[in-house]
Design brief:
The protein is built from twelve helices and eleven strands. By secondary structure, it is α+β, with helices and mostly antiparallel strands. Among the domains are: 59 residues, no CATH class; 106 residues, Alpha-Beta Plaits (2-Layer Sandwich). β8 and β9 form a beta hairpin.
């Protein structure tokens, strides 16, 4: 018996065989419970992830996920896929007085950092499990399979309760009187409210110098105070006159947040300029004093927008995030619709799912707004096209009229110029050609005759059109039969009504007659 919620797979089974592969600890209890990698085959509803169906749900730690992995998918709550916070300690050149290009960048101080050859402890570092993490995993296994808190059959009920809490990703698992309870979070390997989505990888280079700042303010406020914001950022950077803060773009985000993309341009004394690398600028923003100043401006998050190298992408894909089943991670890589542009990211818990839903709604609204703007532009262009076509037709008519007037002026001028001269040979030849053309036009079977025939046909069509306008409309036979039936019913109803009125009139006359006869009799009685 089992049920599957969405793509997370919450499976309950009355048998447990809990195995920790790396540590060689196998624990079995009387009411065994089996934690399965596979999802339940009954009641499956694949809402968020890939659903794997098997006959016997079984979850084994024989191929454990690395719960000690730090970085982007570590033990902290996942707040989305950010490329900026992952490279801050990776490859930093520092903002010192000399960056190797002759353009001394002294706006952020003179401290330099040696370029690191390792990838640091950020996005891609996968450290080995520590003894504390191993103990944590063993304690979790004990809480889920064989708690010894009460020492009787109630421990089996407590084990099932701990299993439900682990599946849900919240609560505390009590298993021993002498050991602190296990804290269940959504990042634990047993939490079933997990899925894998995809995020677009940035294609900006480090030399572009783009850094994203997320403000806890609305887009309208940011745009209205954009100049003051640029000046404040310039002061935070030390107020160096060789540095210029530029805003690349402003985009609204859910929960009344706004994303601002900036870059810094450094001018050298010899007149050349360059952009400060994104990783260098981000490392400067992550300094404690600078970060506090940014927080005073309302900045909640900063990240460098740089593309991932092939080695970094390979490192991410080869190491599943903490708490994500390697099988699901492999399936997510296979189902990637565009591996060159998209990268799989985990969605842990309903908060992350809600965040992605809000982002999707926000992007849909932005797309709809852009479509509305494009539609308005198209309508305006259509109006302009109609106006332009009307003006072109008007100018054509005007050009034709001016051409005729010009021709008349040329004719009169030529007549005055040739006045008193005899007709020349070429003129005589031209006159003969004109007479020939005139004869052809006047011939009955030629153009004039055809034009007369067309004119007569046009007149006949106009006459027939006027006659047709006076013709009556024809009604369909079935419709006419229905109208007759309706009128017949109306006639019968009127006849019945008339007969009722006649009967009532006769009754009234009879009553009047009876009243007239009774009046003299009453007069004789009272006399």
């Amino acid at each position: 018996s089992g049920f599957n919620f969405g793509g997370f797979g919450l499976t309950a089974n009355p048998a447990v065989n809990f195995n920790i592969g790396n540590f060689g600890v196998s624990t079995t209890s009387t009411p065994p419970f089996n934690f399965g990698n596979s999802l339940a085959s009954a009641g499956a509803f694949g809402g968020f992830g890939t659903t794997t169906t098997s006959a016997a749900p079984a979850f084994s730690f024989s191929a454990p996920t690395n719960t000690g992995t730090g970085g982007l998918f570590g033990g902290t709550q996942n707040k989305g896929f950010g490329f900026g916070t992952s490279f801050g300690t990776g490859t930093g050149t520092g903002l010192g007085s000399g960056l190797g290009t002759g353009l001394g960048f002294g706006g952020f101080g003179t401290q330099q950092q040696q370029q690191q050859t390792t990838l640091g402890t950020g996005l891609f570092n996968q450290p080995a499990q520590t003894p504390a993490q191993s103990n944590q995993l063993i304690n979790t296994a004990s809480a889920l399979s064989a708690p010894t808190l009460l020492g009787d059959e109630r421990d089996a009920i407590l084990a099932k309760w701990n299993q439900l809490q682990a599946f849900w990703g919240t609560g505390k698992g009590y298993f021993n009187n002498n050991i602190a309870p296990v804290e269940f979070t959504q990042e634990n390997p047993f939490c079933r409210f997990k899925a894998v989505g995809y995020s677009l990888m940035p294609n900006n280079k480090d030399e572009d110098g783009l850094v994203v700042l997320v403000f806890n303010r609305k887009e309208a406020d940011i745009r209205s105070q954009q100049q003051q914001l640029v000046e404040s950022l310039h002061k935070i950077l030390g107020g160096n006159q060789t540095l210029t803060v530029n805003v690349e773009g402003v985009k609204t985000m859910p929960d009344d947040q706004t994303e601002v993309i900036i870059y810094i341009v450094e001018r050298s004394p010899n007149g050349t300029s360059r952009r400060v690398p994104a990783t260098t600028l981000y490392a400067h923003f992550e300094q404690a004093n600078i970060k506090s100043s940014l927080q005073q401006l309302g900045v909640s998050l900063s990240m460098a927008r740089t593309e991932l190298s092939p080695a970094q992408v390979k490192q991410i894909l080869q190491n599943p995030p903490a708490g994500v089943d390697p099988i699901i991670w492999e399936q997510a890589k296979v189902d990637n619709p565009d591996p060159d542009k998209l990268i799989p990211v985990p969605m842990v818990g309903f908060k992350e799912l809600l965040r992605r839903l809000k982002v999707q709604d926000q992007m849909t609204k932005q797309h709809q707004t852009r479509l509305d703007i494009i539609s308005e532009d198209i309508s305006e262009l259509q109006k302009n096209q109609t106006t332009t076509m009307a003006k072109i037709a008007q100018y054509k008519r005007k050009l034709m009229a001016l051409s005729h007037r010009t021709l008349q002026v040329l004719i009169k001028q030529e007549i005055q110029r040739k006045s008193g001269y005899a007709i020349q040979a070429d003129e005589e030849q031209l006159r003969v050609q004109l007479d020939t053309i005139q004869c052809e036009l006047n011939a009955p079977t030629q153009f004039k005759g055809r034009l007369n025939e067309l004119m007569s046909q046009i007149r006949m069509q106009n006459h027939f059109g006027a006659v047709r306008a006076e013709e009556r409309y024809y009604i369909d036979a079935d419709l006419l039969r229905e109208i007759k039936q309706h009128l017949k019913q109306q006639q019968e109803g009127l006849s019945h009504l008339i007969s009722i009125i006649k009967d009532d009139l006769e009754d009234i006359k009879l009553i009047e007659h009876g009243l007239n006869e009774s009046i003299p009799i009453r007069g004789g009685v009272f006399s």
